[in-house]
Design a protein that fits this description.
Elements: H1 4-24, H2 31-34, E1 40-42, E2 51-52, E3 66-70, E4 73-77, E5 83-87, E6 98-102, E7 109-110, H3 113-125, E8 129-134, H4 144-157, H5 181-196, E9 208-213, H6 215-226, E10 235-238, E11 254-259, H7 271-278, E12 283-288, H8 307-317
Parallel strand pairs: 6-8, 6-9, 9-10, 10-11, 11-12
Antiparallel strand pairs: 1-3, 2-5, 3-4, 4-7, 5-8
């Protein structure tokens, strides 16, 4: 499957703006968040329910996992071993549906709270078994000052024009999937684990979806289109790139949410939506007037805060939240 165009565009989008997104996302958030944008190192939180996936340690990793707080939330970086943390609904609420949640962070950090745990808790409260995927990340400097400097350097480099893409069929062109091969492997392992324990967790093996945020949305799309045996039943793309892709005939229903003032991905066309439409596959697109990037589960005075309720209604419409007898 040829996804080179969409992932090359996503790569350009990330290289131009992720430094800004990670260092100053709060400029599009609430004023209270903007005043709390300093990265403060914290101890690695206890994660007693996290299950280590069988993908092994990140090859060649030298920096070790570390965490920091920012915007009143917590983030992980230098993740070298992938884990999956279950958030299971109470038996009386359980619908049998499940969602693997992929936080964002430019494949350099993971927004574990705002785009991970808080999403999973809200899904479990609606009767959906949720699993937060802490996938392996690209290495960054171990110390916080070095990390911040590396992000500033990456953002400064965004001012340089991107090199032209190689001509079709040109030799030596990099397979864009190779850039996130470890993360795709982690997502595949997550689906395999959930399916292997579906009876124990009271999950319908054919109703396991995936929702991702920013880079996590890119991983969700890659897992859907190139994840081989993963095969999500439905997917959510929350403020990810909207570049066109080649859509298979059996592509799952797709839910998309993006703010019109998103500094990263709101300045292109809606190729992803159109790709799903041309393939005659179900797609729902919410384009909010305001919300910026990274709104996740933050409560903001914008309609983008309603994305989660819309996502749940969409799952309900497709029958994923109807209990099976």
């Amino acid at each position: 499957m040829n996804l080179t165009g969409s992932f090359r565009q996503a790569k350009r989008d990330l290289s131009k703006t992720l430094g800004l997104a990670l260092l100053a996302v709060a400029t599009t958030a609430l004023p209270a968040l903007a005043q709390n944008d300093k990265m403060v190192p914290i101890a690695i939180p206890a994660q007693p329910d996290a299950i280590v996936l069988n993908t092994g340690p990140l090859p060649g990793a030298t920096a070790t996992e570390s965490w920091h707080s920012q915007y009143g939330s917590v983030f992980a970086r230098n993740v070298t071993v992938a884990t999956l943390t279950p958030f299971l609904p109470s038996p009386e609420k359980a619908t049998g549906a499940a969602v693997i949640v992929a936080p964002g962070g430019g494949f350099r950090t993971l927004s574990m709270q705002n785009e991970g745990w808080d999403v999973a808790k809200a899904l479990a409260d609606r009767g959906v078994a949720a699993f937060v995927l802490k996938y392996r990340l690209n290495q960054t400097p171990q110390d916080m000052a070095g990390f911040e400097a590396s992000m500033r350097e990456m953002f400064a480099g965004a001012a340089r024009p991107a090199p032209p893409p190689p001509a079709p069929g040109a030799g030596g062109a990099e397979n864009p999937m190779m850039r996130i091969a470890p993360q795709i492997a982690d997502a595949r392992a997550a689906f395999a684990l959930v399916r292997s324990r579906s009876k124990e967790w009271h999950i319908d093996a054919d109703r396991i979806g995936m929702v991702g945020f920013s880079a996590g949305a890119m991983l969700t799309m890659a897992t859907t289109l190139a994840g081989e045996d993963a095969k999500p039943a439905f997917i959510g793309d929350i403020y990810g790139p909207l570049a066109a892709v080649n859509v298979p005939a059996d592509a799952p229903p797709l839910f998309i949410a993006l703010a019109a003032d998103d500094p990263l991905f709101a300045h292109g066309d809606f190729g992803l939506v159109q790709s799903w439409q041309k393939a005659k596959r179900p797609v729902e697109f919410h384009y909010y007037e305001q919300g910026g990037h990274g709104f996740g589960m933050y409560q903001k005075d914008t309609t983008s805060t309603g994305w989660f309720d819309a996502f749940v209604r969409w799952m309900t419409m497709h029958g994923y939240l109807s209990k099976r007898k």
